[in-house]
Amino acid sequence: MAPSVAHADPGVLPAGSAALYGGLGMSTWSVGMSRNPRDPAAIFRLDTWSGVGLTEHLQLSGGVPLVHSRILSDGPDPPCPPNEADYCTPVTGLGDAHVLVHYGSSWKKLKGRLALGPRSDAWNAGTRLRYVNVGQGTWGGVLEGSVGAEHRAVGGFAEGRYIVRLGRPIPGYDFRAPSDAVQGTVAGFGSAGKLRVQGAAHVHQQVAGVEYGPAYLQTLYDTGNRWGSVAFAQLRGELKLSWSLSDRSGLHLTASRALATRNGPPDHTDVALGAHLWIPPSR
Length: 283
Known about the structure:
This protein is mainly beta and about 280 residues long. It has helices spanning about 5, 215-220; strands at about 20-30, 35-55, 60-65, 65-70, 90-95, 95-105, 110-120, 140-150, 155-165, 170, 175, 180-190, 195-205, 235-245, 250-260, 270-280.
């Protein structure tokens, strides 16, 4: 299996080769920022990604999910208010799209990669106030770097990412909504035959925002910055199982769960099942 496709490690695709990934995923939660029960909601995804090795050290990649979000059952709990008709209306469209140029290199058993490129979900601006929104509708960019190593089928990697989101000015505040965000991942893995098991911890932190509470509810909740203005942060735990179908393809099952959340759903859970295909260089 091509390492950078199957395992998201710091490698890049060999020059002249290409890779495709597709899969289904779902995120769900039933507790709100207030820590009170909410009717369960979910975002369903069709994930797509493709990449091509340009040279020995350069790779071009891009991806965009097709998403559908909705309230799963309209029970006795909130959140659907009778005075806001579109608040719980389902959303179907595209999620956050990106195109990245990667530079990768290695030294002995150590590999490293840097990537930079634009990102956007501007098409979601019109639905950003809904409870089941799938994005805040911004343009921006992504800068990421990773480093890792593997020895005798055991290894690990660390990855950091800065996400630029050109958010909207908030009158009376010195930040834009949504603010930029910082993400990080630390992962370890081991392989046995066709099976690879990977465990990871992911962290996400908005670089600016306000705390959920009375002041937020009184001044920002009923504005166009309802969700983008909160200082969301989360620590997630993840387990990923990869099964090699051949030296060019594989299946990947991933499950993750929020371990600690600030200003967001504390029970957020995500599952995904996908497959990749590596296309070697033509001779």
